Each structure stands twice: as structure tokens, then as C-alpha cells.
Amino acid sequence: MTSSESALSRKEQRAQRRLAKALAKNHGRMPASLSDALSGDDSLPLDLEAKEYWLKDLQNPLRVVILPTLKILLSITLHITYYLKRLSPIQWRAHRFLQWQICFFMKHFVRPEANILILRHFQTESNLLNFVIDNSGKEGVEPVLIYPKVIRDLMVQTFVHHDQGVLMTMRDLGDMKGENWPIAEEELQWTNWTPVDIQYSPSRKKWTQFLDFETAHELFKTTFCFWLTAKEYEAAINSFQFDHSVGLRVDEIVGAAHFADLAHNRFPMILVGPTGLSYRFLMHGFFVEHAHAHLERMRTQLGLNNR
Where do the domains of the chain lie? Predict the structure, then answer.
């Protein structure tokens, strides 16, 4: 044992031996974990805070066994609820009660990092839609004003309102014929773009807040279906498909060819049911975050404030 090794504690010596063994097995290079690779890759840009919270959310141990089990069981309950609602001659709904349940669930059982990602999604998608509205040649298209900053704001700016923001925007924008696109970067309009402002802190975590983003969605997706009418639910889950349309419009506006490629949910003329909902829900969120981050980079290059 060398003098330098004798100065180390037993714990430090074991750590050094493990490091040497790992390097030896990997041709002298430090092995990378999946988390290391995800942290280092910025080919698909993400807001740094959003990326940090998502990677932290992925470490939740519930994802190992509980989440896969819930996906199987709750997908069955969702499909049963979905088809019963479609077959029932009586259509019931309770938007306010649904939203109260969601807010209570988020406040007491969902991890703060996941809650911040949910609040971010409302704001980033509103910005994305407003960017298309601001740079269209259409008159009288109302901007989307869904910018919840804390959980209680979701009692007024609801998930149903959020989905309707997409549907009403696409209806009011109409066809792209006659649009003067592409637009030079310095002439782009950002009138209704609002920097993301979340006033909810991870430091507020309660001991009961243990659910990650995906597990929380699995637990609540059947409830969301139950408290909407069949037509409302069909509109909500098909609003994701307009990711493709939004991406194509942004491509035309900025003269690019990659925003539409970010969209996993495509071809809105093909109506979809609840099969694969959880994955489509996640891909919708990531499309919005990636597209928003691209536009944030553009704003930074133009000297505009994103904060």
C-alpha cells in the first residue's frame, strides 16, 4: 500500500478500487449512466429547469414496479369507462368537481417537480399557439390566455379550457392560403408571448407528495374520462393530434423544416381513442417543450427577454 493510499479512509479506498475496476472494464473511460447521457444531450432543446425536474422525476422508485402494473390495470378501467360513456344515452359531466379533484390530488400527492411541469405545460402551449396567432394574417383570432402560476389557478384555467384553447385556435385560424410566410426573424411578432412564470416551489413538498408525473397521470386518466361527456373526452384526447398542424404552421412561419418533425401525434383527421393515451400524452408534452425551447433560443438571438 502506498503512502497516499494509507492516508485515505477505507471508504475512499473502496471507492478508488471500484473506479479503477469500472475504468478497466470500459477501456479506460468512465462509464455513463442513462441519466448522464440524457443530461448531456441537448440535440432536442429543453428549458434547463424543466429538464432538471423531469430527470429528477424519472428517479422515483415507483416507476420500477408500481407504474407498469398501474398502466395495465388502469388502461383496462379507462377503456371500460370510455365505451360505457359512449354507449350511455345519459351524458353526465362535472367540470368543477373534476378540477377540484385534480387540484387536491396535485397539492397533496404529486411531487412538486411534476406539478411544476404540469403548470409549465399550460404556459408553454399557450405561448406556442399565440406565436402562430400573432404571425398569422387572420383578423379577430383571440389569443390563448391560459397561464396558471400556482395549483389553485387551475380551478379557473382548467384542463378542459386548455384543450379548448387548441381546438378554438385551429378553428379560428382556418386555412393557410394567403399567409405571407415565411417571415424574417426580425419581423416576427411576439405580442402575446409571455415568459414562463411559475410561482410554485419544490421546497413546499409535503411528506405525502410521492407520485411522479407518469404515475399521477395513470391514476387520474379514468377519472378525467368519467367526469366529461363522451364528446368532450373525445375532443380532449384528439386535441393532441393537432401537434402536427401547429408544427407545420411554425415551420411555414419561420421558414424551417423541423418543428413538424418533433410531433409524434399527427394527422388530426384520424380520430383516436384511449389506446396508447399515456404515451401520446407524454409525447404531446415533449413536443410543446421542445418547440417552445426552439423559439426561446430564437428570442434570445434576437435579444428578447425570456424571463
Answer: 92-307
